[in-house]
Design a protein that fits this description.
mainly alpha
Length: about 140
């Protein structure tokens, strides 16, 4: 019985490439979404919102070190990308809540896995212990 040689896979069509994107291409729109999701603040916002709806001030308190401007910009990017919902209530004073969309929950699972990996591997990653800073060596 003779085996037939497997034919090489056909290259993806242009429509396949457009649907999936080409992250390695300089002008791929996926890069902008990747930048928003994987930015320092994007990861932390997604993780914070995984616990449920949050108001802006609660997010700012929860995410140590983020400026008001950077948090507002990050929330705006993630909202435009379809990962975060912004709900404004018509009350005085204004009341706005942020939550994850279904896509945002998917993205949060992915970045949480990366964040968890980093946290558990810190001793192996060659980073000095932050508590050991400014220790003079004899």
């Amino acid at each position: 019985m003779e085996k037939s040689a497997a034919s090489p896979p056909s290259p993806p069509s242009l429509s396949d490439k457009l649907l999936r994107g080409d992250l390695m291409a300089a002008n791929c729109p996926s890069r902008e979404v990747l930048r928003h999701i994987t930015s320092r603040w994007g990861v932390l916002v997604l993780i914070a919102l995984s616990q449920g709806k949050r108001r802006f001030s609660a997010l700012r308190r929860e995410i140590g070190g983020v400026s008001e401007r950077m948090l507002a910009q990050t929330l705006q990017w993630l909202e435009q990308d379809g990962l975060v919902d912004r709900t404004a209530y018509a009350v005085v004073p204004p009341h706005v809540e942020y939550s994850l969309t279904p896509l945002g929950r998917e993205a949060e699972e992915k970045v949480r896995a990366l964040a968890d990996w980093i946290e558990t591997r810190m001793p192996l990653l060659g980073r000095p212990d932050p508590s050991a800073r400014d220790v003079a060596v004899g």
